[in-house]
tRNA N6-adenosine threonylcarbamoyltransferase (Marivita cryptomonadis), 338 residues
Amino acid sequence: GRDITILGLESSCDDTAAAVVRGRGILSSVVADQTALHAAYGGVVPEIAARAHAEKLDICIEQALTEAKVALSDIDAIAVTAGPGLIGGVLSGVMMAKGLSAATGKPLIGVNHLAGHALTPRLTDGIEYPYLILLVSGGHCQFLRVDGPTSFVRLGSTIDDAPGEAFDKTARLLGLPQPGGPSVETSALSGDETRFVFPRPLLDRPGCDLSFSGLKTALLRQRDQLVSNQGGLHAQDISDLCAGFQAAVRDVLVEKSRRALTGCTGITGFAVAGGVAANTQLRAALETLSNQNGLAFVAPPLALCTDNAAMIAFAGAEKFALEGADDLTLTARPRWPL
Ligand code: KG4
Ligand code: ZN
């Protein structure tokens, strides 16, 4: 039948977002990020995030409808992130979606935020189920086999930090600007990845679980040794440390991806999503691995890898087609494993 038009809302972390999606077409995708509000605190402050979401959601929705050139009455359903995430933000979104649904009589669909990320390669590239995806962001690191819009098998995940978190901490320890991923990547361009020895955590253990906290410890030790030996860090030291750190993250993610692919039969391709998927070296290494396995490689554009509401609208449409709508008893879930 005809593609339905969905309004999606996202407010589970520090981005307030609204989007209108029809089939695989993104009619609009508005993201209001809160980085500036949290900058002075060195991290996301939940109370500030919740208040900002509550204030910004209706503006984002209005803008998304305007840019999509549709009226609220043209929308077929309303999808909203119902978890996991910071409870205040998730609640803001869920209450807004319920209000819109009650006022318009349009169906309400609660979407898992991680499902949104995991289905993005279908939105961007139309990849068929089942496929393997590596989610790598500031908050997540996991391998999922995606069998359907609400059907996932987790093959492994980090037992401590997420890689993005490790990039951010590395930048902080070396005096580079936040977010750490891009600044570490840039500094590493002129670095020698072999000068400093970094561990390759958990490679000695079978399976697809990952660990990144040891890399931070290794970095701290090498940094402090340089400082005590020579009184400070030279630009070349920083670049070499960044290159060594980045190579360790890359090697671990590639080797664990190799294992995850080996354990997955019948998949149509390998996809990657999340902010860390922006890393050029990592992307290239994962693409090579995918090619070696004869699989299509999908890495959505960065704006759709990071938090957005188009992925929520799309995941909502896929879930709606399979399972129908939720009702007004939909609740916000701070924890919601796939
Ligand atoms: O998916 P995302 O925007 O937010 C969530 O975690 O939800 O991911 C942000 C993370 C940050 O930790 C940032 O440092 C990292 O992605 N990142 C990168 C790069 N660009 C962003 N990490 C490595 N290389 C990059 N080029
Ligand atoms: Zn996310």
